[in-house]
């Protein structure tokens, strides 16, 4: 499906720019709606895949996200890019879906573990989470990296995506998920530790398989 969506994005559109496209979508123009989907579906699907447990759930997120986008596109005022606005809409839809499904991401009552006060990153000595080797990362495909992110427990995966990929602060994440900042930091630390381990293991076995082929 992802490759199909990427191919759709290559189609030449009728509308001159996103403002014109959004205005047409808001007025109910079916051709504009199709062009909006073709243009952004692959990018939004990549976002959905990172939050989903499996491919089918990502497709569900994509469907619900575009319904919400088309229902509210008249609210986009043209400030900032349309893509950034759509990403925020999709994230809100995904989090609402996770909440309504009573997934683990909102069951943090037993995970209120306080993390350090300082902002963390891949190389934070306080969290003891060294960054994965850049040479290893560069040899993994986008699909391989997304598959590893999908393996994370749902709470870890959601916090990781919101902080590392989307750029939200710990405070914003805590507010979005209804958890403490300490919990958000703890979940992020554990997510990074798991990903680092899995990335190195995945590369090791991939390299070994290539060598033995």
Layout: helices, strands, pairs:
Elements: H1 2-9, H2 18-26, H3 30-51, H4 55-72, H5 82-100, H6 134-138, H7 142-150, H8 154-165, H9 170-177, H10 181-212
Helix pairs in contact: 1-3, 2-3, 3-4, 3-5, 3-7, 4-5, 8-10, 9-10
Description of the molecule:
The two termini are 29 Å apart. The protein has 213 residues and is mainly alpha-helical. The chain has 2 domains: 2-101, RNA polymerase sigma factor, region 2, helix turn helix motif (Rna Polymerase Sigma Factor, Chain: A, Orthogonal Bundle); 108-212, Arc Repressor Mutant, subunit A. It is globular, with a radius of gyration of 19 Å. 67% of the residues lie in helices and 0% in strands. Mean pLDDT is 80; it is low at 103-130. α1 (2-9) packs across α3 (30-51), α4 packs across α5 (82-100) and α9 packs across α10.
